[in-house]
């Protein structure tokens, strides 16, 4: 739908201004004809966005729940004064920062996907508003996964800091890279296509073999 809207906007720029509001034999102006002929495409785009936003919102909510709980179950525990025992270690600071960033970014993702789900899904929303929200949501979700994995890894670094099993946190940290790579492999093409379709399509819109997002 976004590509069709871009085509329509580009055509409006190159035709004579009086043609934009000129009616055909049935008394329809170009915008009315465009809207009528793209009803099904608009519906398909709406359903696709809702499904994508709903799925990503579930993941973002799970991440927010996990990292929020982790903030109150600090690794190493606290002393009688309520101060974290491992507060002096750099690894603990990294854990706190990454956990906080994971929470904030996952909340941003939730808000973006919620905004998509509650959108009016008007034609012009597909031009920039909805793709921009989708890009921000996906980027925030990806960042929250990265920071969550960092926090998870440093939990083991703190737990095994004074033991002879320092290979355990190293192995866990290496393993934590795998879900990040999987998400990047599966979702980065969508993020790239959305960005390209929103910001690059105007420069080479009339070139053939362009990949259409939706």
TrEMBL record:
<feature type="transmembrane region" description="Helical">
    <location>
        <begin position="167"/>
        <end position="192"/>
    </location>
</feature>
<keyword id="KW-0472">Membrane</keyword>
<dbReference type="GO" id="GO:0016020">
    <property type="term" value="C:membrane"/>
</dbReference>
<feature type="transmembrane region" description="Helical">
    <location>
        <begin position="52"/>
        <end position="72"/>
    </location>
</feature>
<dbReference type="InterPro" id="IPR026961">
    <property type="entry name" value="PGG_dom"/>
</dbReference>
<keyword id="KW-1133">Transmembrane helix</keyword>
<protein>
    <recommendedName>
        <fullName>PGG domain-containing protein</fullName>
    </recommendedName>
</protein>
<feature type="transmembrane region" description="Helical">
    <location>
        <begin position="138"/>
        <end position="161"/>
    </location>
</feature>
<feature type="domain" description="PGG">
    <location>
        <begin position="46"/>
        <end position="157"/>
    </location>
</feature>
<feature type="transmembrane region" description="Helical">
    <location>
        <begin position="92"/>
        <end position="117"/>
    </location>
</feature>
<dbReference type="Pfam" id="PF13962">
    <property type="entry name" value="PGG"/>
</dbReference>
<keyword id="KW-0812">Transmembrane</keyword>
């Amino acid at each position: 739908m976004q590509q069709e809207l871009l085509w329509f906007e580009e055509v409006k720029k190159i035709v004579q201004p009086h043609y934009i509001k000129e009616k055909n034999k049935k008394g329809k102006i170009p915008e009315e004809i465009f809207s009528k002929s793209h009803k099904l495409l608009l519906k398909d785009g709406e359903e696709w966005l809702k499904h994508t936003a709903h799925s990503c919102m579930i993941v973002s909510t799970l991440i927010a729940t996990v990292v929020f709980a982790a903030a109150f179950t600090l690794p190493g525990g606290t002393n009688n004064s309520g101060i974290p025992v491992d507060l002096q270690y750099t690894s603990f600071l990294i854990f706190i920062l990454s956990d906080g960033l994971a929470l904030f970014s996952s909340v941003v993702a939730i808000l973006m996907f919620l905004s998509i789900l509650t959108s009016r899904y008007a034609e012009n929303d597909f031009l920039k508003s909805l793709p921009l929200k989708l890009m921000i949501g996906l980027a925030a979700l990806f960042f929250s996964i990265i920071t969550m994995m960092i926090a998870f890894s440093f939990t083991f670094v703190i737990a095994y800091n004074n033991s002879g099993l320092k290979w355990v946190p190293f192995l866990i940290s290496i393993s934590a890279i795998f879900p990040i790579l999987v998400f990047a492999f599966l979702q980065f093409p969508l993020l790239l296509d959305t960005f390209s379709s929103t910001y690059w399509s105007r420069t080479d819109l009339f070139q053939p073999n362009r990949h259409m997002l939706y």
